[in-house]
Every structure is written in structure tokens, then in C-alpha cells.
Amino acid sequence: MDAQRALLDELMGTARNLTDEQKKKYKEVHWDDKEVCGCYMVRFCPHDLFVNTKSDLGACPRIHDQKLKESFEKSPRHDAHVPKFEADLAKFCEKLVTDLDRKVKRGRDRLEQEVEATPPLVPNEKPEHLSVLEEKIKKLLEQIETLGEAGKIDEAEALMRMVDMLNAEKATLSQQSATDKVILPQEKKMALCEICGSFLVANDAAERTQTHVTGKQHIGYGMIRDFLSEFKAAKEKAREEEKLAREKEAEERRKQHEKDLRIRVRESDVGRRERSRERDRHGDRNYERERSSRVGGASHKHDYHRNGRESNRVRYHNRSGARSRSRSPSRHGYRRSRSPV
Fold this sequence. Notes:
The chain has 341 residues and is mainly α. It is built from nine helices and two strands. The protein has a two-stranded antiparallel ribbon with strand order 1-2. A hairpin with a 6-residue loop joins strand 1 and strand 2.
């Protein structure tokens, strides 16, 4: 019937039997709605594991729908919602396991107390009583023998009757020792299942042990513990990978920083050499300029002095010639007399 109903829901929808008025108020449920059980979507719901057992959690208050679960698995948002659903399931399972571990601890303490409270066995005292009787009979027989040798027949007979009584008691005790066995208490030794917290009979029959192992409670808590171990391992792995990624990123930043530093140092050295060469070039040009100015100045000064000397010489000669001409008689109207030939 359930299979047919599911088939009809798949073909005609879950609102196939509603009236038009009801369909107006009907809201189609999606897998990401709050009413849907996320634990059931991603793995399993603990409410489904312990039905009709001592650990029954009752019905889940949220929706379990295989069709919605298939829709969730096909959704492009599946991977984005899995961590959240798994975290919710892990939180639920952690609470169940914590409560169970408390129960296991109480059961373990109870077993330890029962072992400590077991009274010690009382040993059988009958063999010791028999040895005492035998010792008394032996002493009486020695006394009877002594009295017989002394001729005290009446006293010897009285002791003999006492020996007969002791022998009868001895026979009775011997018979009880042969028939009575010390019955040890055959209490069943209990053990505790560490998975589900159930009490078991130690060294029980294989069939009963197998029945417990395949029971809902044992399988359910086994699934919960396995999921928690897997979830914690995955979380630890993700944390380790994140740590390695941070270390790798830090190492890459360090290498990039060193590379940038080497580039800056190299550029600084190149710039320093360029500036040094530029200074050298400027220094050479300044030196040539200064040298040229020094050489030009000296030449100009030399020319100046030479020209000055020459001009002075010219002026001197001019003045000398002028003086000579001014002193010439012809120039003053006098004629030099020629000597007669």
C-alpha cells in the first residue's frame, strides 16, 4: 500500500486528493524547508534507528520523504548544504553518545560493586571434625588397653561404649562427607556492551550473542559512533589541510617578499652604478670644461700680454720715430750741409 501511495505521489503529486479550496492553501514542500529533516536528507535520522527498542526516541517531528531526498541529491546546491546537515546530525549524535556513555559508566560501576560484594565461600568443616573424632577414639582405645591390663574391666567397658558412640558419629560424618558436596553459587557473570550499553551474559551461547549484535539497538548505536568517528576524522583532515594551506601561503608570501627584496636591492645597485657613472660622466665634462677654461684663459692672457707688449713696442717705436723726426734739421728748416766732394 505504501509503495502504491508513493507511486501515485510521484505521478500525480502529493496534493492529488485535495479539493480546489484546499489546493489554494496547499504549500509544496521542498527539501531545504525547515519542516524537512536535514539528518534524513544527508545520512540517517536517529529517530528511525531504535523503533520498538529500549532506546526508542519516538517519531521524528520533521518530514522524512524519499522523494525529497532524491531531489536533494540531484540538486546543484547539494554540496553546499551537506556540511550544515552533517553538523546538525553530528550534534544530535554527540548528545546521544554522551548520554549512552554515562549509562555505560553506571553499568560498569555496578558490575564492579557486585564483584566486590560477593561473599567468600565458607570451607567445609566436616573433615576437620572427623580428624578430631579419630583422635579421641585413638586415645580412648589406649586408655581401654591400659585398664584391661590393670584388670579394671568395668571401667574399660564404659570407655568401650563411649568409643562405640564416637565410631557411630564418625560413620555418620563420613557418610555425609561422601554424599554432601559443597555447592558453589553458579551466578551468571555479566558483561557490558561498550557499543550500546546493554548487559550481556559473559561467555553466552553464540546464537544469543549473534542476536544481540544484529539487534536494532546495537546496530543503531554502531552507526552513530561510526558516523561521529568519520565526521571528526574529516573535520580534523580539513583542519590539517587548512593549516597546510596557510603555511604554504605564508611560505609563498615569504618567498615573494624575498624575491621583491632581491629585485629592489638589484635595482638599487643598478641605480647606484648608473648614478656613479653619471657622476663620472659629469665629472669628466666638468673637468674638460674647467680645463678648457683654464687653458683658454691662459692663452687669452698670454695673447693679451703679447699684444700689450707689441702695442707698447709699436707705441715706443712710434714715439721714438716721432722724436727723431721732430729733431731732424730738415724738419725744422735746416739743411744738412753736404761735404764737398
